[in-house]
Write a structure and sequence with these properties.
Length: 333
């Protein structure tokens, strides 16, 4: 039987399902630090199921038999894909199943931040509410405003679809190496392609939905924040590192923009604690895909990918979501 590692706790029934095919080392305890992760791989694993654990050249070197790593996430910046390709190791991810859940959560942040829901709830809980006042927690509208999507991919199109119901104008920009989406998608979403600078100048609410790559590091920093309206909202449901969190703290304190909703952070879970000094932000601990149905769909897809990539099950040899399909069938190097 081939051996696999499940690198962190997942649904127990998915572990049981994997046990039908593999000898499973199921780490159902706490998260594994990298060194310990590496030690698990020296035990000749053929595959692994991860959810954000960093898999780099040194981890792969410790795992000479490893042929596939299946990430339970759509983003795979935890994989060093150059190292995967050099070693002929397949990476897989879980696209599409989380698009709508992610968009819903982004929408929730985009409503909560400008309407100051978290900030005003803290005020109420602290017993500070004494009277009604015409200007207490004044915010800005979503309905009829301009939405800016940076990263109009599979997920980015989902908030753009929601914008119709809010009578919003949609403008978008794509990131490194990508330009416009197909004209029929633009027409359907009624979305206008603009430069990043134009988007930042015009937008009332901007949502970031782009993958983390070196080129996208600090897509939003001091310069970009300075272009935005003082009434604007920034929503980040992408990845830590897309926004320069220190620059954002400064911009919020200086009231360069009105507010932000953030689910992802540089260095998470050890995020920049200066964000806690800013009252007008909504901060959540990377829970964008956390609904029962979506997390189940992600876990099932991650298991499907692993089973198929290791030549088992009904899709043997044809995993649904290969990131680097060129390595399929090549000997591990
Ligand atoms: C994951 C995510 O839950 O899919 C992604 O890329 O950001 C989240 O939905 C998280 O990354 C854990 O793997």
């Amino acid at each position: 039987m081939q051996k696999i590692l499940v690198a962190r706790p997942i649904f127990p029934d998915v572990v049981e399902w994997l046990k039908q095919y593999f000898d499973v080392d199921a780490n159902q305890g706490d998260l594994l630090p990298t060194e310990e992760l590496t030690r698990h791989f020296t035990d000749n694993k053929d595959g692994a199921l991860t959810a954000g654990e960093p898999i780099n050249a040194s981890v792969l070197a410790a795992a000479p038999r490893l042929r596939v790593v299946s990430n339970m996430a759509v983003g795979y910046n935890n994989f060093d894909m150059a190292a995967f390709n050099a070693a002929n190791v397949l990476g897989t991810n879980t696209p599409d199943v989380l698009n709508e859940t992610t968009a819903d959560f982004g929408w929730a942040l985009m409503m909560a931040a400008p309407r100051r829901i978290a900030e005003s709830e803290h005020y109420l809980r602290a017993g500070l509410w004494q009277k009604w006042s015409y200007d207490a927690f004044i915010g800005s509208d979503l309905y009829g405003s301009t939405l800016g999507v940076i990263g109009m991919g599979r997920i980015g199109q989902a908030p753009a679809r929601r914008a119709k119901g809010f009578n919003m104008q949609v403008i978008y920009h794509n990131y490194h190496n990508r330009t416009r989406v197909l004209p029929e998608i633009e027409a359907k979403l009624n979305a206008e392609y603009v430069s990043k600078q134009d988007l930042l100048r015009r937008v009332d609410h901007v949502v970031l939905v782009l993958p983390y790559t070196q080129e996208n590091h600090h897509t939003i920093g001091t310069v970009e924040l300075a272009l935005m309206k003082p009434t604007a909202t920034l929503t980040d449901i992408a990845r830590g590192g897309i926004v320069d969190d220190a620059a954002l703290v400064e911009a919020l304190h200086a009231k360069q923009i009105a507010t932000a909703g953030l689910d992802v952070f540089e260095g998470e879970p050890n995020f920049n604690r200066d964000l806690l000094t800013v009252p007008n932000v909504v901060l959540t601990p990377h829970i964008v895909s956390a609904t029962e149905a979506t997390r189940r769909a992600m876990a099932n897809l991650a298991a499907d990918n692993l089973i198929a990539a290791l030549g088992e099950g009904p899709r043997a040899g044809r995993p649904p979501n290969p990131i680097n399909p060129d390595v399929i069938g090549k000997a591990r190097s």
